[in-house]
Amino acid sequence: MKTDKKWEKGGYLLRSACEGDAESYFEQNYNPLDPEAARLTGCKASFTQEEVVSFFREAVHAEDRYFFLLISPDGRIIGESVINEIDWKLRCGNFRIGIFQETERGKGIGTWITEVTRDFAFEDLKLHRLELDVFSFNPRAERAYLKAGFKREGVLRDAVLDGDRYADDILMALLEDEWKALKGRTD
User: Fold this and answer.
1) Which of 6, 11, 23, 148 has the most CB atoms within 10 Å of its CB?
2) pLDDT of 153-172, one tens digit each?
3) Cβ-based neighbour number of residue 78 at 10 Å
């Protein structure tokens, strides 16, 4: 059974998503979706309310996913942090974040939610491996991931489009022992 989690820093709150957040999540972030958020995360430019709300409700209950919302000091949902595609036998999962509001990017919030979610993955979920991918045209995100201990594992060259130009998809991961060393843990 999933437990509700929450973390706070500087007036920002990262907390477990719940089904009742679905409509606000859509209204505050996808109506319309910031074009730069779509570009940096590789998603399509627009979604219907039904697409977002139904996906959100399924995601909250999925057994292979932990879904956290980033709340601004004024109470708006401005982003998310997700561990998904969890393989419980291999003890590995995929990680992604998104900060939907342009005014909230570049403040160090992404680094903070990356570190909090990373720690949750290894402490609470007991994962062995946490992986992600980041596009080469998003160096700010790559720096945040490197700062959080993720290591580059490979590059899928010219694997995505940034407008009409090809860009790389950078594969990164952090292993349990690396996380323990980062945290100074010996257990």
Assistant:
1) 148
2) 999 999 999 999 999 999 99
3) 22
Q: What kind of fold does domain 6-183 have according to CATH?
A: Aminopeptidase (3.40.630)
User: What tokens were used for 148?
Assistant: 């959080």
User: Measured at the alpha carbon of residue 17, what is the angle toward residues 149 and 75, in degrees to the nearest 5?
Assistant: 95
Phi, psi of 148 (to 5 degrees): -80, 0
Pairwise CA distance, residues 16 & 9, whole Å:
15
Give yes or no for a cis peptide into 139 (omega within 30° of 0). Answer: no
Cα–Cα dist 92/130, whole Å: 6
Pairing of strands 6-9, 66-71: unpaired
Residue whose token pair is 């919302």? 69
Question: How long is the chain?
Answer: 187
* 0.85 surpassed by pTM: yes
First to last CA, the chain: 25
Strand spans (E) along the chain: 6-9, 12-16, 66-71, 77-87, 92-99, 129-135, 151-162, 165-175
CA 124 and chain centroid, separation: 17
Q: How far is CA 69 from the centre of its chain?
A: 10
Q: How many CA atoms within 13 Å lie on the side-chain side of 182?
A: 17
pLDDT at 1: 60
Neighbouring C-alpha atoms within 13 Å toward the C-beta of 79: 26
